[in-house]
């Protein structure tokens, strides 16, 4: 009987490494999300969260740059490959959900699972707000906050506020954070997608109905307000 060790296709002992499709399908299944591989000519990708591509769904594949075709059936190369994840609405609009290095599959899985758990929502905002994409890409002022947050509220979105680090004779300044405010003046955390969208890092945010999250922790009795979407945690004098 031969004693020559058996080798896999890479010339190494042991089982062949998982393809991207195998690894992603298994990780998604652990989160209760179904996925199936689609192959068309030399390209392949996963359809995620639905049995067909005729309803709102997501897709996932590996890529290496503009010259590389869509592929999920190869073994990920940690030095060259990245994951591409997008949602596709019933109107066929494809929007990037996240893009991650090959070693960050779990980040993609979490993003897809959250989207699926939310009922595969259309990632959309009212047409009159589409131009706000990237409005804060180069930073923002209190005046920008008043204008943008005012438009969002007028379009049916939550009443958003920006809490600055301080206010002085020159106005608001320092670090800042976005919150939602209800009619009673209570503040709530805001879906991170909102900042990503306004800063140009994601094409469209989660649906506005999901922007308001858990109640804000810590004191919210801010000493300075312009009564139009801006607050300050401290007031500087002198």
* Span between termini: 92 Å
Helix content: 10-25%
Largest sheet: 6 strands, mixed
Indicate the structural class: alpha+beta
Total beta strands: 11
User: Could you list the spans in which at least 5 consecutive residues all have pLDDT below 50?
Assistant: 1-11
Q: How many DSSP helices?
A: 4
The helix/strand order is: HEEEEEHHEEEHEEE
Average predicted local confidence, pLDDT: 87
Shape type: elongated
The radius of gyration computed from the alpha-carbon positions, rounded to a whole number of angstroms, is 23 Å
Strand content: 25-35%
- Order of adjacent strands in the largest pleated sheet: 9-8-7-6-11-10
List the helices and strands and how they pair.
Blueprint: H1 20-30, E1 35-40, E2 43-48, E3 57-63, E4 82-88, E5 94-101, H2 105-117, H3 142-154, E6 160-168, E7 171-181, E8 187-190, H4 193-198, E9 212-215, E10 224-225, E11 230-235
Parallel strand pairs: 6-11
Antiparallel strand pairs: 1-2, 2-3, 3-4, 4-5, 6-7, 7-8, 8-9, 10-11
Structure description:
This protein is α+β, with helices and mostly antiparallel strands and 238 residues long. The protein is 18% helix and 29% strand. It has 4 helices and 11 strands, in the order H-E-E-E-E-E-H-H-E-E-E-H-E-E-E. A 6-stranded mixed β-sheet has the order 9-8-7-6-11-10. Strands 1-2-3-4-5 form a 5-stranded antiparallel β-sheet, covered by helices on one side. The protein is elongated, with a radius of gyration of 23 Å.
């Amino acid at each position: 009987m031969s004693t020559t060790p058996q080798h896999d296709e890479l010339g190494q002992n042991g089982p062949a490494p998982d393809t991207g499709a195998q690894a992603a399908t298994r990780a998604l299944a652990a989160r209760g999300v179904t996925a199936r591989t689609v192959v068309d000519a030399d390209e392949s990708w996963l359809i995620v969260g639905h049995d067909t591509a005729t309803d709102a769904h997501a897709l996932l594949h590996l890529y290496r740059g503009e010259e590389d075709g869509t592929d999920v059936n190869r073994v990920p190369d940690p030095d060259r490959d990245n994951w591409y994840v997008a949602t596709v609405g019933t109107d066929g609009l494809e929007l990037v959900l996240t893009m991650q290095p090959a070693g960050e599959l779990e980040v993609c899985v979490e993003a897809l699972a959250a989207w699926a758990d939310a009922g595969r929502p259309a990632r959309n905002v009212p047409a009159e707000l589409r131009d706000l994409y990237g409005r804060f890409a180069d930073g923002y002022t209190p005046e920008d906050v008043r204008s943008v947050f005012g438009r969002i509220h007028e379009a049916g979105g939550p009443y958003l506020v920006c809490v600055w680090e301080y206010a002085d004779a020159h106005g608001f300044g320092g670090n800042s954070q976005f919150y939602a405010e209800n009619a009673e003046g209570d503040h709530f955390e805001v879906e991170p997608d909102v900042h990503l969208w306004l800063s140009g890092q994601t094409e469209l945010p989660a649906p506005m109905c999901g922007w308001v999250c858990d109640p804000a922790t810590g004191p919210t009795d801010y000493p300075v307000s312009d009564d139009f979407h801006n607050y300050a945690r401290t007031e500087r004098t002198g």
